[in-house]
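Hi,

I'm pasting everything inline rather than attaching a file, because the server keeps stripping attachments. The sequence lines come first, and each chain or strand is labelled.
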Amino acid sequence: MTADVPADSETEQLRRQLAEAVDAARDAYRDTTRLIQLLDLLGRPAGSAELIGDMLNVLSDAFFADVVCMARVCGDRLIVSGSCGLPEDDPAYTEGWPVGEAVRRTLATAEPTALHRDVPAEDVPGSVAGLGIRSAAWIPLSAEPYADTLLILFRSLDQPFAVPDLRMLTSVAARLHMALEERERHAIIEQLAHYGHLLARHLEVEPLLDEAAGLLLRLTRADRAWVVTVEGGQGRLRAHRGLTPGIIADWPVPAKSLDDLPACEAGLPEVLKVAVSRENGATALLCAGREQARPFAQGTLEIMTIFANYLGVALTNADLYHALAERATRDPLTGLANRSALVSHLDTLLSAGDPTRVGVLFCDLDGFKAVNDLFGHEAGDELLLQVADRLRGSVRPDDLLARFGGDEFVIVLDRVKQLSEVAEIGARVCADLDDRLVVCGEQVQVSASIGGVLGVRGQATPSAMLRDADAAMYVAKARGAGQVEVFDEDASHRSRDRLDLRAELLLARSRGQLHLAYQPIFALDSRAIVAFEALLRWTHPHHGIVPPDVFIPLAEETGAIVEIGQWVLAQACRQLALWHRLPEGRGLGMSVNLSPVQLHQPQAAERTLDVIRAAGLHPADIWLEITEHSYLRHEVTEYAGALGAAGVHLVLDDFGTAYSNLSYLKRLPIEILKIDKSFVSGVTGPGGGQIDLSIVRAILAIADSLGLVAIAEGIETEDQRTALRSLGCRLGQGYLLSRPLPAAQAGLLLRPRPQLPARAHRVG
Amino acid sequence: MPVDIPAPRPAVVTPVTEPLRVGVGYSDAADAATAGRAAAAEALAGLHGTPPELIIVYASVSYDLIALLHAVRRATGKAPLVGATTSGQFHDGRLINPGLGVSVLALSAGPYRFGTASVTGVTENGDDAGQRLARAARAAAGPEPSAHAAVLLLTTGLAGHQQELLNGVHKVVGAPVPVVGGSAGDDRLLIRTCVFENDNVLTDGGATAVWIASPTPLSVVAEHGWHDVGLPLLVTKSDGLVIQEIAGRPAVEVFREHFHDEVTFERPGLLKPAPGYLSAYAFGLIQPDGSKLVRGAYIDEDGELKTFSPLPLYAPVQIVSCKAEDLLRVTGDVVRQSLAGRDASVLLAFSCVARLDVLAEQGAKEAALIQDAAGDVATFGFYTYGEFARTTRVAGYHNATLTAIAL
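And the predicted assembly:
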């Protein structure tokens, strides 16, 4: 038995069937694979451009196409937006090629078109024609918004695009369209977020609106974009991209006609407008337009609305920033520039490259505190407002007027050539201010003390100029109300020196630069020493001995005098206690000068007495010298009263040089008067001697009548001593008798001596 | 002042150009400088005094490549140079086995203009590298427009991303410009491959190209000769280069089922094949037109089935096989198709090292057949780790294939 062997023909048939089955399987697998490949691609995370690029590559591969491109109808031409197979510099990307019959049919029917063998030349772009195209397919991407976009496949292979191919391509095109839309949406969301961020950067309105116009153009893919604001019934074109001068010239327009005026459409066939809503209503309008009647993509209006909201927020932010910036640079009461704005402005001017100079006037109101005290702070504020108004009227348009603080105003003068100009303007401002103003129904006399300086650009600094102008103002004020003082370079320099000294004085005591000298006060008849006056001395390591009339005021200004004064009293007391232990020193007094500033300290009397007692002295051992003007305040009376009651002797220094108000002598427990050196030196002088003699005689008479002791200061000659003695003055001090001496030398004077110092004889 | 108006030009200008002159040189001297000098001198001698306009160097990776190029360039001067390391070379009907020698081709301009360039970064972004390479090579050929062009593309063989590189080139030059070339080899060592441009040696991740501007159309031909030994299948699971499942079954099992009884599992007695490399079986990646791209495959030491380049997702494949005679059958066709209708001076060919493995002791036959078919036309080529032949679609990266272009 033999197995059935198929006949040759049967074998052949089986072979053929197998081949067909293999072919069918191959085709099926190939179709499956390419569908999987395409779907896989659509599902991958990629941007639109990348997706299109990859998709066109896969389509070229899977459909054996020499060229695959995505093209869009623009007018009567087809422009390629992406391809696999066109050279990158192919004109199909830029100029495109005329829309042919196949394209027209595809767009009209929204169905794919496939041609085989007779592909019309008009439907094939130039560079593709050379490839010997035998077959082509046009697939509409979708209805909206890519209704004008096609997928086109060209292949040189002599094989038609079969119906299943076209079906697959149509399905892929639709999915590609959806995927692109989806990515577009994502991209738009990202873009919106990014643009929102870009808008938020701007704190100034103009650049904000300008950027908004640029972003709007890109966001909406418009040909023109513009931003209109509505203010005071006017619609104003604030920023734009691509508007022609002719269109721009039509603006502004009345706000109420914004919707129907041709200018608002910019002559474009397609325009979208969205209002920018803010708390106080719509204040701006975003407009995007297209040159051709090509509708905007669906959803563009919504995108613009979101963008408009971002813009609204950014505009609010810009307003808030503006308000904050105003607050940071404006004085809230007067609306003038504040101190930081002033410094910044001055700094800018001083940095400018300009041969002219910059002037600064520092104005301080005279008597402002009195107004505040008398009529209250509201009146003070009203006065400042009125003064600010006056000053505004006085300055030149380019000058900067600032409130420096309290009752201080500063005027910055740009482009000044010389100091005299500063002085002139200062005088004018001074004159303009010198007036009676009505504040809270009360008439108030106003004036200002003004200091001025001139600064060289590139050299002067704002802080130095303000410091020097301030110093000049103090000099002016010292001359009386309503004065102007300008500092030249030297004056500024001196003022700076003074400031340096002031700073160093604060450290002088801790550095051991302060010490006391003692000048004896003699009984003029017996030549016995009755007391010493403790005198403060400052030996500066560079300046040498600094005179007391220089540093005492500085110590008073800084308040350092309180601590220094306390120290002086303690030192003097300690020294006196030492001398009291000597047999010749018993009953010796110590005179110590008090600054008015010291008297104003709380518990000044107790502290003074504490120091005296701490040294083991009795208050009656100490003479405290005060000057006339320090009486003025009530607490001085209290102080003097308390000390007087405790036994301290109060000395009125420099009597006769100031007010010499006798009622103070009555009110205060003064026991000793010091006759000023200026009168003493005159008692023996030629001519004027008579007057001084009369004054000294009068002072002595007053002292005598009130039961006070008089001390003559500054006795330099024997004649003066003789004259004073003859007038009945019992105590005196001066170079004739002894210079102020260090403690050790002063102590030697206490030893019993047969006569007055030899030098006195020589002089005499 | 009157201006001379030039006389109108003739409507059609027929440029009279010199024919393309070709010189081939070879040396197997052990010293790189000596070998380079000798091969270059021989190649230049073939130009009979015409200045060289393009130099192509194929060399074994065993040379000191810098010294080699330096020696070649000293002889060839400033003429642009490209080249690659190989896994064997062939010219004049002769096979130079892997691990030996340097071959130099010197070309005069003839009717062509050449522009060369090179890039790195193929591994990081092959598409971008391809674009840069194409633009640079085209620019190097000069601004004059040419009617036609082709790109000769050489890339490093172990860097992968060959199709991406090709995608990038294609993006720039488009369908009208065919691409031919190959991936550099390294005598089957699979360690390091290099391409050359002028004095530079670029290792894996580098690529070089020649823009060939031509007055006449240039065509690229590719054939492999492999035939399927089974039904169409779908690769149903893969991970990179590892094929895990075919038709839902273990891939190795399915692959083995197709082995014919005659297959000898002894490896070709050449230098160093990949472990378990079965040159006689491969995947045929089914193409839309029914043709197949061959994708070499092997079973590694761990018993995993691997390919040299990743197969696409759910790739439709057929297991393909071949014998030496199958491969040799297409050799003459490729040459004849390349030369058809052309008055060519040289055939540049790129054959896969996998073919050499299958050919085994008949290895030298392919080189001889190529020269036989080319007749008087010089032939010059190397054994690659993958061949380029982009003709119609964007896909144009092959394995186990012979590709060629005639100039």
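The interface with chain B takes residues 22-23, 25-26, 28-30, 32-34, 36-37, 40, 53, 57, 60-67, 83-88, 90, 127-128, 130-131, 155-157, 159 of chain A (CB under 8 Å).

If the labels don't parse on your end, tell me and I'll reformat.
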